[in-house]
Protein backbone atom coordinates (compact mmCIF):
# COMPACT_ATOMS: atom_id res chain seq x y z
CA UNK A 1 0.00 0.00 0.00
CA UNK A 2 1.70 3.15 -1.22
CA UNK A 3 0.26 6.61 -1.85
CA UNK A 4 0.40 7.74 -5.46
CA UNK A 5 1.22 11.20 -6.76
CA UNK A 6 -0.65 12.54 -9.78
CA UNK A 7 1.09 15.82 -10.46
CA UNK A 8 0.77 17.83 -7.24
CA UNK A 9 -1.99 15.58 -5.87
CA UNK A 10 -0.91 12.98 -3.32
CA UNK A 11 -3.57 10.28 -3.20
CA UNK A 12 -4.27 8.47 0.06
CA UNK A 13 -3.43 5.08 -1.47
CA UNK A 14 -2.99 3.19 -4.72
CA UNK A 15 -6.62 2.05 -5.05
CA UNK A 16 -8.89 3.72 -7.60
CA UNK A 17 -12.53 3.37 -8.59
CA UNK A 18 -12.73 2.91 -12.37
CA UNK A 19 -15.02 5.19 -14.38
CA UNK A 20 -18.13 3.23 -15.42
CA UNK A 21 -20.88 4.71 -17.57
CA UNK A 22 -24.16 5.02 -15.68
CA UNK A 23 -22.60 3.73 -12.45
CA UNK A 24 -19.91 6.00 -11.06
CA UNK A 25 -22.16 8.98 -10.53
CA UNK A 26 -21.30 11.31 -7.65
CA UNK A 27 -23.06 9.36 -4.84
CA UNK A 28 -21.26 6.11 -5.68
CA UNK A 29 -17.91 7.89 -5.97
CA UNK A 30 -18.40 9.45 -2.55
CA UNK A 31 -19.37 6.10 -1.05
CA UNK A 32 -16.32 4.32 -2.50
CA UNK A 33 -14.08 7.05 -1.11
CA UNK A 34 -15.76 6.59 2.27
CA UNK A 35 -14.79 2.91 2.06
CA UNK A 36 -11.17 3.49 1.13
CA UNK A 37 -10.75 4.37 -2.55
CA UNK A 38 -7.86 6.82 -2.96
CA UNK A 39 -9.29 8.11 -6.25
CA UNK A 40 -12.78 7.91 -7.76
CA UNK A 41 -13.04 8.92 -11.42
CA UNK A 42 -16.30 10.26 -12.85
CA UNK A 43 -18.16 8.24 -15.41
CA UNK A 44 -17.30 8.99 -19.03
CA UNK A 45 -18.75 12.32 -20.21
CA UNK A 46 -19.01 12.92 -23.99
CA UNK A 47 -17.29 16.23 -24.68
CA UNK A 48 -19.78 17.34 -27.33
CA UNK A 49 -22.81 16.76 -25.07
CA UNK A 50 -21.13 18.46 -22.14
CA UNK A 51 -20.29 21.58 -24.10
CA UNK A 52 -23.81 21.68 -25.57
CA UNK A 53 -25.22 21.90 -22.05
CA UNK A 54 -26.95 18.51 -22.09
CA UNK A 55 -28.58 18.04 -18.67
CA UNK A 56 -27.47 14.44 -18.23
CA UNK A 57 -23.88 15.24 -19.22
CA UNK A 58 -23.80 18.15 -16.79
CA UNK A 59 -25.08 15.96 -13.95
CA UNK A 60 -22.22 13.54 -14.62
CA UNK A 61 -19.77 16.42 -14.24
CA UNK A 62 -21.28 17.54 -10.93
CA UNK A 63 -18.78 16.93 -8.11
CA UNK A 64 -20.35 19.13 -5.43
CA UNK A 65 -19.26 18.04 -1.98
CA UNK A 66 -16.68 15.50 -3.14
CA UNK A 67 -13.60 15.33 -0.98
CA UNK A 68 -10.10 14.67 -2.22
CA UNK A 69 -8.85 15.06 -5.78
CA UNK A 70 -11.70 15.42 -8.27
CA UNK A 71 -11.07 13.44 -11.48
CA UNK A 72 -13.37 13.93 -14.49
CA UNK A 73 -13.22 11.63 -17.50
CA UNK A 74 -13.93 13.13 -20.92
CA UNK A 75 -14.59 11.25 -24.15
CA UNK A 76 -14.59 12.06 -27.83
CA UNK A 77 -12.53 11.97 -31.00
CA UNK A 78 -12.10 15.66 -31.79
CA UNK A 79 -8.93 17.16 -30.29
CA UNK A 80 -10.36 20.70 -30.18
CA UNK A 81 -13.60 19.63 -28.48
CA UNK A 82 -11.73 17.51 -25.96
CA UNK A 83 -9.41 20.42 -25.19
CA UNK A 84 -12.40 22.71 -24.70
CA UNK A 85 -14.11 20.13 -22.46
CA UNK A 86 -10.93 19.87 -20.39
CA UNK A 87 -10.83 23.64 -19.93
CA UNK A 88 -14.54 23.66 -19.02
CA UNK A 89 -14.00 21.10 -16.27
CA UNK A 90 -10.86 22.74 -14.95
CA UNK A 91 -12.76 26.01 -14.62
CA UNK A 92 -15.38 24.18 -12.55
CA UNK A 93 -12.96 22.67 -10.09
CA UNK A 94 -11.64 19.46 -11.65
CA UNK A 95 -8.23 18.57 -10.22
CA UNK A 96 -7.48 15.85 -12.78
CA UNK A 97 -8.70 15.38 -16.36
CA UNK A 98 -8.87 11.78 -17.59
CA UNK A 99 -9.14 10.90 -21.29
CA UNK A 100 -11.23 7.86 -22.24
CA UNK A 101 -9.48 5.56 -24.69
CA UNK A 102 -10.97 2.35 -23.35
CA UNK A 103 -14.75 2.29 -23.77
CA UNK A 104 -15.66 -0.66 -26.06
CA UNK A 105 -19.31 0.33 -26.67
CA UNK A 106 -20.34 0.36 -30.34
CA UNK A 107 -22.06 3.73 -30.03
CA UNK A 108 -18.82 5.29 -28.77
CA UNK A 109 -16.48 3.50 -31.16
CA UNK A 110 -18.63 4.48 -34.17
CA UNK A 111 -17.79 8.08 -33.27
CA UNK A 112 -14.05 7.27 -33.46
CA UNK A 113 -13.87 7.68 -29.69
CA UNK A 114 -13.19 5.42 -26.72
CA UNK A 115 -11.13 2.34 -27.59
CA UNK A 116 -11.54 3.04 -31.33
CA UNK A 117 -8.85 5.68 -30.87
CA UNK A 118 -6.29 2.92 -30.41
CA UNK A 119 -6.52 2.23 -34.15
CA UNK A 120 -5.47 5.79 -35.02
CA UNK A 121 -2.22 6.61 -33.27
CA UNK A 122 -1.78 9.88 -35.15
CA UNK A 123 -5.15 11.11 -33.87
CA UNK A 124 -4.24 9.96 -30.36
CA UNK A 125 -1.11 12.08 -30.57
CA UNK A 126 -3.11 15.16 -31.55
CA UNK A 127 -5.65 14.57 -28.76
CA UNK A 128 -2.97 14.14 -26.11
CA UNK A 129 -1.17 17.29 -27.22
CA UNK A 130 -4.39 19.32 -27.37
CA UNK A 131 -5.75 18.29 -23.97
CA UNK A 132 -2.46 18.49 -22.08
CA UNK A 133 -1.81 21.90 -23.60
CA UNK A 134 -5.28 23.20 -22.75
CA UNK A 135 -5.14 22.90 -18.95
CA UNK A 136 -2.81 23.42 -16.04
CA UNK A 137 -4.11 20.42 -14.07
CA UNK A 138 -2.70 16.90 -14.56
CA UNK A 139 -4.10 14.85 -17.44
CA UNK A 140 -4.35 11.06 -17.21
CA UNK A 141 -5.31 8.39 -19.74
CA UNK A 142 -7.32 5.16 -19.49
CA UNK A 143 -6.96 2.62 -22.27
CA UNK A 144 -7.13 -1.06 -23.17
CA UNK A 145 -4.31 -3.30 -24.31
CA UNK A 146 -5.19 -2.71 -27.97
CA UNK A 147 -7.95 -2.87 -30.57
CA UNK A 148 -7.71 -6.68 -30.84
CA UNK A 149 -5.32 -9.43 -29.81
CA UNK A 150 -3.30 -9.06 -33.00
CA UNK A 151 -2.76 -5.35 -32.36
CA UNK A 152 -1.79 -4.79 -28.73
CA UNK A 153 -0.21 -1.36 -29.03
CA UNK A 154 -0.72 -0.17 -25.45
CA UNK A 155 3.04 0.00 -24.68
CA UNK A 156 3.69 2.19 -27.72
CA UNK A 157 0.75 4.46 -26.92
CA UNK A 158 1.92 4.66 -23.31
CA UNK A 159 5.29 6.02 -24.47
CA UNK A 160 3.48 8.55 -26.67
CA UNK A 161 1.37 9.57 -23.69
CA UNK A 162 4.37 10.10 -21.46
CA UNK A 163 6.10 12.19 -24.12
CA UNK A 164 2.94 14.30 -24.50
CA UNK A 165 2.81 15.09 -20.77
CA UNK A 166 0.25 12.57 -19.52
CA UNK A 167 0.89 12.03 -15.81
CA UNK A 168 -0.66 8.63 -15.10
CA UNK A 169 -2.11 5.67 -16.99
CA UNK A 170 -4.80 3.08 -16.30
CA UNK A 171 -4.84 -0.05 -18.47
CA UNK A 172 -7.69 -2.56 -18.71
CA UNK A 173 -6.25 -5.98 -19.43
CA UNK A 174 -8.47 -6.70 -22.42
CA UNK A 175 -8.61 -5.52 -26.03
CA UNK A 176 -11.59 -3.73 -27.47
CA UNK A 177 -12.51 -6.89 -29.38
CA UNK A 178 -12.61 -8.80 -26.08
CA UNK A 179 -15.07 -6.30 -24.60
CA UNK A 180 -15.66 -7.95 -21.17
CA UNK A 181 -15.39 -11.57 -22.29
CA UNK A 182 -12.78 -14.04 -21.11
CA UNK A 183 -10.14 -13.36 -18.52
CA UNK A 184 -8.13 -10.16 -18.29
CA UNK A 185 -4.39 -10.53 -18.90
CA UNK A 186 -1.70 -8.53 -17.18
CA UNK A 187 1.40 -9.23 -19.29
CA UNK A 188 0.60 -6.27 -21.54
CA UNK A 189 0.11 -4.06 -18.49
CA UNK A 190 3.54 -5.21 -17.29
CA UNK A 191 4.95 -4.18 -20.67
CA UNK A 192 3.31 -0.76 -20.30
CA UNK A 193 4.83 -0.34 -16.86
CA UNK A 194 8.22 -1.32 -18.26
CA UNK A 195 7.87 1.20 -21.09
CA UNK A 196 7.18 4.31 -19.00
CA UNK A 197 8.10 5.94 -15.71
CA UNK A 198 4.52 7.08 -15.06
CA UNK A 199 2.24 5.70 -12.33
CA UNK A 200 0.21 2.85 -13.83
CA UNK A 201 -3.04 1.35 -12.54
CA UNK A 202 -3.93 -2.21 -13.54
CA UNK A 203 -7.63 -2.75 -14.24
CA UNK A 204 -9.74 -5.82 -14.97
CA UNK A 205 -11.15 -8.79 -13.03
CA UNK A 206 -10.31 -7.51 -9.54
CA UNK A 207 -13.11 -8.83 -7.35
CA UNK A 208 -11.34 -9.87 -4.15
CA UNK A 209 -8.42 -8.69 -2.03
CA UNK A 210 -6.43 -11.70 -3.25
CA UNK A 211 -7.12 -10.67 -6.86
CA UNK A 212 -5.69 -7.22 -6.16
CA UNK A 213 -2.47 -8.63 -4.69
CA UNK A 214 -2.09 -11.10 -7.57
CA UNK A 215 -2.62 -8.42 -10.22
CA UNK A 216 -0.11 -6.09 -8.59
CA UNK A 217 2.40 -8.93 -8.54
CA UNK A 218 1.81 -10.04 -12.13
CA UNK A 219 1.68 -6.56 -13.66
CA UNK A 220 4.21 -4.67 -11.59
CA UNK A 221 1.68 -1.82 -11.63
CA UNK A 222 1.71 0.92 -9.03
CA UNK A 223 -1.93 0.42 -8.10
CA UNK A 224 -5.19 -1.28 -9.00
CA UNK A 225 -8.29 0.30 -10.49
CA UNK A 226 -11.45 -1.58 -9.55
CA UNK A 227 -14.61 -1.43 -11.65
CA UNK A 228 -17.27 -4.14 -11.77
CA UNK A 229 -15.90 -5.78 -8.62
CA UNK A 230 -17.09 -2.78 -6.61
CA UNK A 231 -20.65 -2.86 -7.91
CA UNK A 232 -22.78 -3.46 -4.83
CA UNK A 233 -19.58 -3.77 -2.78
CA UNK A 234 -17.99 -0.36 -2.20
CA UNK A 235 -16.37 -1.83 0.92
CA UNK A 236 -14.10 -3.88 -1.37
CA UNK A 237 -11.59 -1.01 -1.29
CA UNK A 238 -11.28 -1.22 2.48
CA UNK A 239 -10.90 -5.00 2.28
CA UNK A 240 -8.17 -4.71 -0.36
CA UNK A 241 -6.33 -2.05 1.65
CA UNK A 242 -6.45 -4.23 4.78
CA UNK A 243 -5.23 -7.29 2.92
CA UNK A 244 -2.35 -5.48 1.21
CA UNK A 245 -1.27 -4.05 4.56
CA UNK A 246 -1.64 -7.16 6.71
CA UNK A 247 -2.01 -10.24 4.50
CA UNK A 248 -5.33 -10.98 6.19
CA UNK A 249 -8.75 -10.93 4.52
CA UNK A 250 -11.16 -9.03 6.79
CA UNK A 251 -14.73 -10.24 7.34
CA UNK A 252 -17.40 -8.85 5.04
CA UNK A 253 -19.62 -6.14 6.57
CA UNK A 254 -22.78 -7.44 8.20
CA UNK A 255 -26.20 -6.63 6.77
CA UNK A 256 -26.77 -3.68 9.10
CA UNK A 257 -23.49 -2.05 8.10
CA UNK A 258 -24.30 -2.66 4.45
CA UNK A 259 -27.75 -1.20 4.99
CA UNK A 260 -26.33 2.04 6.37
CA UNK A 261 -24.01 2.31 3.36
CA UNK A 262 -26.91 1.70 0.96
CA UNK A 263 -28.99 4.40 2.64
CA UNK A 264 -26.09 6.82 2.24
CA UNK A 265 -25.98 5.93 -1.46
CA UNK A 266 -29.74 6.47 -1.87
CA UNK A 267 -29.59 9.80 -0.06
CA UNK A 268 -26.91 10.95 -2.47
CA UNK A 269 -29.01 9.89 -5.46
CA UNK A 270 -31.97 11.84 -4.07
CA UNK A 271 -29.77 14.90 -3.65
CA UNK A 272 -28.44 14.65 -7.22
CA UNK A 273 -31.49 13.46 -9.17
CA UNK A 274 -34.56 13.88 -6.97
CA UNK A 275 -36.82 11.11 -5.68
CA UNK A 276 -38.37 9.78 -8.90
CA UNK A 277 -35.39 9.84 -11.24
CA UNK A 278 -33.14 8.80 -8.37
CA UNK A 279 -35.27 5.70 -7.79
CA UNK A 280 -34.82 4.64 -11.41
CA UNK A 281 -31.06 5.11 -11.20
CA UNK A 282 -30.96 3.22 -7.89
CA UNK A 283 -32.54 0.03 -9.24
CA UNK A 284 -29.39 -1.45 -10.74
CA UNK A 285 -27.37 -0.62 -7.62
CA UNK A 286 -29.98 -2.20 -5.36
CA UNK A 287 -29.88 -5.31 -7.52
CA UNK A 288 -26.16 -5.63 -6.84
CA UNK A 289 -26.59 -4.93 -3.14
CA UNK A 290 -29.23 -7.65 -3.03
CA UNK A 291 -26.61 -10.27 -3.87
CA UNK A 292 -25.78 -10.27 -0.14
CA UNK A 293 -29.26 -11.64 0.59
CA UNK A 294 -30.07 -15.37 0.51
CA UNK A 295 -32.14 -16.87 -2.29
CA UNK A 296 -35.77 -15.86 -2.16
CA UNK A 297 -35.08 -12.85 0.10
CA UNK A 298 -32.77 -11.39 -2.54
CA UNK A 299 -35.24 -12.02 -5.37
CA UNK A 300 -38.11 -10.46 -3.40
CA UNK A 301 -36.01 -7.42 -2.49
CA UNK A 302 -34.98 -6.86 -6.13
CA UNK A 303 -38.54 -7.20 -7.35
CA UNK A 304 -39.87 -4.66 -4.87
CA UNK A 305 -36.99 -2.25 -5.43
CA UNK A 306 -37.56 -2.35 -9.19
CA UNK A 307 -41.27 -1.58 -8.77
CA UNK A 308 -40.64 1.37 -6.44
CA UNK A 309 -41.31 4.71 -8.10
CA UNK A 310 -39.77 6.83 -5.34
CA UNK A 311 -36.57 6.68 -3.36
CA UNK A 312 -38.48 6.89 -0.09
CA UNK A 313 -40.05 3.49 -0.84
CA UNK A 314 -36.64 2.02 -1.64
CA UNK A 315 -35.22 3.46 1.58
CA UNK A 316 -38.02 1.81 3.55
CA UNK A 317 -37.23 -1.53 1.86
CA UNK A 318 -33.57 -1.23 2.79
CA UNK A 319 -34.39 -0.45 6.42
CA UNK A 320 -36.77 -3.39 6.62
CA UNK A 321 -34.44 -5.94 5.03
CA UNK A 322 -30.91 -4.87 5.96
CA UNK A 323 -31.15 -2.99 9.24
CA UNK A 324 -31.77 -5.95 11.53
CA UNK A 325 -28.77 -6.46 13.78
CA UNK A 326 -29.44 -10.17 14.29
CA UNK A 327 -29.04 -10.91 10.56
CA UNK A 328 -25.71 -11.86 9.10
CA UNK A 329 -24.55 -11.56 5.51
CA UNK A 330 -25.21 -14.68 3.50
Task: Describe the protein's architecture and organization.
46% of the residues lie in helices and 12% in strands. The protein is built from 14 helices and eleven strands. It has helices spanning 26-34, 47-51, 55-60, 79-91, 106-109, 121-134, 154-164, 187-195, 209-219, 236-246, 255-273, 275-289, 295-307, 311-322; strands spanning 5-6, 9-10, 15-17, 39-40, 45-46, 71-75, 96-101, 139-144, 169-172, 200-203, 223-226. Strand 1 (5-6) and strand 2 (9-10) form a beta hairpin. Helix 1 (26-34) runs antiparallel to helix 11, helix 6 (121-134) packs parallel to helix 7 and helix 11 (255-273) runs antiparallel to helix 12 (275-289).
Element layout with pairings:
Layout: E1 5-6, E2 9-10, E3 15-17, H1 26-34, E4 39-40, E5 45-46, H2 47-51, H3 55-60, E6 71-75, H4 79-91, E7 96-101, H5 106-109, H6 121-134, E8 139-144, H7 154-164, E9 169-172, H8 187-195, E10 200-203, H9 209-219, E11 223-226, H10 236-246, H11 255-273, H12 275-289, H13 295-307, H14 311-322
Parallel strand pairs: 3-4, 3-11, 5-6, 6-7, 7-8, 8-9, 9-10, 10-11
Antiparallel strand pairs: 1-2
Helix pairs in contact: 1-11, 4-6, 6-7, 7-8, 9-10, 11-12, 11-14, 12-13
Short description:
The protein is α/β, with parallel strands linked by helices.
Indicate the mean pLDDT: 92
| Rg measurement, Å | 19 Å
How many distinct helices?
Answer: 14
Give the SSE order as H and E letters: EEEHEEHHEHEHHEHEHEHEHHHHH
Largest sheet: 9 strands, parallel
Helix content: 40-55%
Q: What is the approximate shape? A: globular
Low-confidence segments: 325-330
Q: Helices and strands: which structural class?
A: alpha/beta
Distance between the termini: 29 Å
Q: Give the number of DSSP strands.
A: 11
- DSSP strand (E) fraction? 5-15%
As laid out across the biggest beta sheet, the strand order is: 4-3-11-10-9-8-7-6-5
